[in-house]
Amino acid sequence: MREYDLIVVGSGPAGSSAALVAAKLGLKVLIMDKARHPRVKPCGGGLTPKTMQLLDWLGVSVDDLILGECSTVYVSNYAGTFALRSKEPLISVTRREELDKRLFDEATARGAEYENREVVKVINGRGGAEVMTRDGHAYSSKIVIGADGAPSRVAASLGLINEGSAAAVMSIARGPADLPCLLDFTAVRFGYAWIFPQSDGYYDVGLGSIVKQRYGSRLGEYAAGWGLEAGKMLGHLIPYKSLRPVVGRVMLAGDALGVADPTTGEGIFQSMYTGIAAAYAAYLAVRNGGVIYERLIGNLLRNNELASRVSLFVYGLDTQFFSRFLGATGYASGDVKDLLVRLISGRAWYGDVTKFMAAKMPKYAVKGLMKLG
């Protein structure tokens, strides 16, 4: 049986970030994935400033992968369309298959090994864990990181099932070359549609909602309304309810853990963040024995809990009540727009949002209700 310091199951942003950092720290690392790169991955492909900062910190350049940049993002609801403006790009658009391959290549270049095998089970032991593959191979490791997306085989092996996820569908569409970067909260209930410009009249268009349905036809209609011809529809889950991060010698990261932003659906930053933290936790566990992963990602998990509360306001009160029936919305406020820009950029967290809401939202609510008079 082959033995490693760390086995990483999955090679998306979480898995490859974990493998890259762990290899840099000197661990003997194996990446296991049933798919080869490049592989098609349904995703909006939008990188926020905080994600770009993580990539820079990792020493991974993606400048040549950026297809479009949005320094202005338009947000639409029933009260109108409002512009979020920034001096830096709020969203840098890339193709996920290219981003994933870049991170994977960086990890293997640093010494991480790779096996193209499908993991079906992970078994915890006293001093490590055993990884079993569909073709009957077994691998032993001091630590395992499950970064195999949603639904996760590694999580299922631990008896963990994520029941908190949104449904999303995306497509690469072609049309006019002058469409803006848009988030549209009128396109679907309890969710939004996005249009992210790539280049030469191509766009990443998508639609996601916590109400799980098949949205392919709806996305096609929405894209056509903007003069876009959608290509192949690709559906995926966005897991936003986190599972138990650590069980024995096994940690979960990224979508396998369930750390997508419950309000925006952003997941690349959260995946990379948890993957990096898991790598450091693995290094410390191999050297010292203890696993402190949950402490390392505590702030992110608490941030997501607050984001869940904020999402109730965004998709419920603001979109379905204030904007729809009163013609009022928080997006009309300069203070709100400034806060959202800071949130997207990573200069504010949801704790700042909840404090702002407690202080300011009653005033905005009264203004909206006065319109009924």
UniProtKB/TrEMBL annotation:
| Pfam families registered for this protein in UniProt | FAD_binding_3
Residues passing through the membrane, by range? none
According to the UniProt entry, its GO molecular function terms are: FAD binding; oxidoreductase activity, acting on the CH-CH group of donors, NAD or NADP as acceptor
State the superkingdom: Archaea
Domain FAD-binding intervals: 4-179
Q: Write down the NCBIfam families for this protein, in alphabetical order.
A: GG-red-SF
Name-wise, this protein is: Dehydrogenase
